[in-house]
Amino acid sequence: MPTKVESDYKKNTDFKRVAESKKFRELINQRKKFIIPLTIFFLVFYFALPIMTSYSTILNRSAIGDISWAWIFAFAQFVMTWMLCIVYVKKSAKFDKQADEIIQEEIEGER
Question: Where are the transmembrane segments (predicted)?
Fold first, then answer.
């Protein structure tokens, strides 16, 4: 449920003008430059395990004792997921802060 301050903030802001501003478009481009490579990396890394285990025997070799490369690769996916999550949360907080600053500038520009 939005607070009164939040609803006034949304009601008094011309978001169409904010979306058309140069700074906001630059922010959107920065977000795309961040999220698209990260998503591609995630999908390639994620689908590499089932594809490599299904169509090749390269991961069946022993890596450490009885542990095969498939197990190491599967564990690496957990590590990769946590790392990407941490990076995404930190970067998205930065983007949110920039968006708030842009909206605030637009509100102050209207006055």
Answer: 34-55, 67-89
